[in-house]
UniProtKB/TrEMBL annotation:
InterPro entries: Rho_GTPase_activation_prot (IPR008936), RhoGAP (IPR051025), RhoGAP_dom (IPR000198). GO terms for molecular function: GTPase activator activity. GO terms for cellular component: cell cortex. Signal peptide: none annotated. Residues 311-323 have a biased composition (Basic and acidic residues). This is Rho-GAP domain-containing protein. Residues 293-337 are annotated as: Disordered. One of its GO terms (biological process) is regulation of fungal-type cell wall organization. SMART domains: RhoGAP. Keywords: GTPase activation.
Length: 337
């Protein structure tokens, strides 16, 4: 079928159109028998990010998050997928008062376009200009990326023990938090960073439920399939509701869980950052920094949002400085002042 079916929008430059056409050529080559885009379901392409294991795609499509290790009071760095960083910062700045965010669908055409951009080397959408797209488009593509992951954010290996631990009757909340934290620390490190970033973002939207009409139950229902699910239970409604209950617990207590600890060997520069990524939005706790390459990830400090209002600046300029997503603990920020 022809490239015209992708319906390239008028806001794209000739260079961007060429980029998308190159991506589309790879997709159709990988699915020669598909009659249309829907038949492809997960149109994976070489060096893409959709339908690719997180531990693989994070190596070449990532943005940095920084946080403070409260044991050493040292700034540490981790990485999350570029698509999550871009969509997360955009949504936190522009969608906090949007009714039905994460529930109302965006444009299918624009979502396909976003997938092509985030799936294409070398920038993987890091320099995306959000003009022409809505917050619902951004929420759609974020959910699509998460739903297309071969394994959920909480990997299948720890699905059962995570549920059993979280749903177990326990009168001591501190004890349960500690037990859950121990399981989180067993996840692949890329999954730890992504999980804690998502919990922080979702909790922000929970606080905006008066405007969005999306309370913690609604948001848990949206994100449970991509964060905590198992193919053996996909047709069991009771198991799905269990996953929602677990996710609600994680969101309610997200500020008590910890990022990977440096154990006195914390990196002082962004880790595993082989490319500098540019962002278009400065959301809560997000600041401009230049990402320098480092060889290893930090190998736990609590993730909390900055309570300060996001800075406002020209969001669509072509010469915006490189930036990474920065998430700091409120307590740690006070220490740095």
């Amino acid at each position: 079928f022809a490239m015209s079916h992708l319906e390239i929008l008028g806001v794209f430059t000739p260079g961007q159109r060429a980029l998308v056409k190159g991506w589309w050529k790879k997709v159709t080559a990988a699915h020669p028998s598909a009659r249309n885009f829907k038949d492809m379901r997960v149109p994976t392409v070489e060096k893409g990010v959709f339908g690719i294991l997180l531990v693989e795609s994070i190596k070449y499509a990532h943005s940095s998050i920084s946080y403070i290790d409260d044991v050493t009071e040292t700034q540490c760095f981790g990485v999350i997928p570029t698509i999550i960083a871009k969509c997360g910062s955009f949504l936190k700045e522009e969608a906090m008062t949007t009714e039905g965010i994460f529930r109302i669908s965006g444009s299918a055409r624009r979502t396909r376009m976003l997938q092509s951009i985030f799936d294409t080397p070398e920038t993987y959408g890091s320099q995306l200009d959000w003009r022409g797209y809505t917050v619902h488009d951004a929420a759609n593509i974020m959910k699509r990326f998460l739903n297309f992951l071969p394994e959920p954010v909480i990997t299948l290996e720890y699905y059962r023990v995570f549920k059993d631990t979280t749903l177990a009757e326990c009168s001591n909340l501190d004890f349960k938090i500690e037990a859950v934290q121990e399981i989180i620390q067993k996840l692949p490190i890329a999954h730890q960073y992504l999980l804690l970033y998502l919990l922080d973002m979702i909790s922000m939207f929970v606080t905006a439920r008066e405007y969005t009409r999306m309370d913690i139950s609604c948001l848990s229902a949206v994100f449970a399939p991509s964060i905590l699910s198992h193919p053996d239970d996909e047709k069991n409604p009771a198991k799905y509701f269990e996953s929602q209950k677990v996710l609600k617990f994680l969101i309610e207590n997200q500020d008590r869980f910890s990022m990977p600890s440096a154990h006195n060997t914390c990196a002082t520069k962004p880790s595993l950052v082989s490319q500098k990524t540019a962002g278009s939005y400065s959301g809560s706790g997000i600041e401009s920094i230049v990402a320098d390459a480092e060889e290893s990830l930090p190998t736990t400090s609590t993730l909390r949002r900055s309570k300060t209002a996001p800075s406002r600046r020209d969001k669509y300029g072509s010469h915006e400085p490189h930036q990474t997503v920065r998430v700091n603990r409120a307590s740690s920020q006070r220490k740095l002042k």
